[in-house]
Amino acid sequence: MVSFISSTFGVFLSVLCDNLLLTVVVPILPELLREKEIQNSHELTTYKNHLTLRNSTDGIPALTNSADESCLKQLFHLHMLNENSQLGILFSTKAIMQLVCNPLVGSLTSKIGYKIPLCIGNFILFLCSLVFGFADSYLLFLIGRSFHGLASSLVAISGMALVAELYPYDEDRTRFLGRVMGAAALGVLIGYPFGGFFYAFVGKTMPFVTIAVLALFNTGLHVSKIHIDWMRNSGGWKSRVNDASVVPTSSCWRLLRDKSILIISIAIWLSTMAMAVLEPTLPVWLIDNIDPPKWQLGLVFVPDSLGYFTGTNFFGQVALRLGRWKTSMLSMAAIGTACLVLPMSKMVLQLALPHFSLGLGLGIVDASLMPLLAKIADESYHAGYGAVYALAQTSVALAYSLGPLIGGQLVPVIGFPDLMISIGIMNLLFCPFLLFLHETHSETTNNSSLPIQESGSQQPLLTGDMQMSVMNKFIQPPNSQERISLYQRFYDDIEWE
After folding, report:
1. CATH code, residues 7-441
2. Predicted confidence (pLDDT) at residue 418 exceeds the cutoff of 60
3. What is the structure's pLDDT at 162?
4. For 113-203, where are the alpha helices, taking DSSP H only?
5. DSSP assignment of 294-355, as one string?
6. pTM of the model
7. Domains of the chain: which residue ranges?
């Protein structure tokens, strides 16, 4: 735990702030956009007041105006569908920007390392939080959401790659990557109720200012670490640029030719699509059908946050031992089933179980496949963690860019239930393809205890005769000489008697 705090606390806090800002807006923006539609709301209120006044002066019973009331409800329903489209565009803007920036950030990390992009990402998170906190127009929300995409790209790729570089052993790497992904789950877990509660009782500014303070503190923390590294090494990060071992890197197109990487990328994309579609569409569907209080809009997403936190923190080691392809396949099946069941809910409480299953499945998929990407990078791509995690984050960004857009446009056409059923079927149909990861997983588990030589200027953990000793232990059956000695001793004892 001490090693985790000293080495990766900055990464943990960065991912936490990123996901706090990602989710705190989900319960706030639907209500905020509805409040901004002053003119439409005023027209509907004036129309309804006119109906009431006409009824009272003419002495006509209210029942004769049932058609007018029905028309009023229809207008409100159309307004909610229009809000779906606005939210879809707003939520997808961040992912579209992240989709563009991911390849650039992956290439940047191969030249200057991971710490400087991580620091820049935290500073941009600070600025975006201030923009959200004091924005008063749809355009400003759009700008803040776009730059949040750039910050997320810097934080996610640099943070995951830095942890993969710090912990070369597969078992340690799986554990610490799970903790960092648990920071994302913690941010999601806190973000939904945090945003919904403070918006209902304090206002929209308070949650964003809190995130801005955390991001600014973390930026200072990263600046101090970069300064210490600079003082220790007069060459600084520039020595990494001149290191020939770091130059070989792989483009996303070359990585996609790898069958295992392609399957992992599609699995991450499909599993994330379920959550990406839910965020902008579920609150509006609840308002339109159940009409829960404001604070319940935030609590709706708590079960899947708990599930994701559980999956990332406690199932990484389980996946390593049981088989990453097995756990990933079962998890995608759970995601698909949850998507099929979720639209059947008639009240907020009934959403808890499918939401928890959805979050748990997504967490196990990430905890299983993210460390596997780093292992593949070690074996085939010169430990280019930035490149493989840029591709993984591109899959996530693709889900969060297409998900809100598709959801916002298809909900008025086919409805929310049919949309979720379609996504669930897609996840179920892809499960058999994860069988192709069986060979990759076998290689990973057999070599999970071998030391991995770091890229860049770092030195191998074992050198000289120590490396030969370790390799000989893996070439020969473990403890074979001890077994022969014990058997001979047992045989001699029996012969002596």
Report:
1. 1.20.1250.20
2. yes
3. 92
4. 115-134, 138-166, 170-201
5. HHHHHHTTHHHHHHHHHHHHHSHHHHHHH-HHHHHHHHHHHHHHHHHHGGG--SGGGGHHHH
6. 0.73
7. 7-441, 466-496
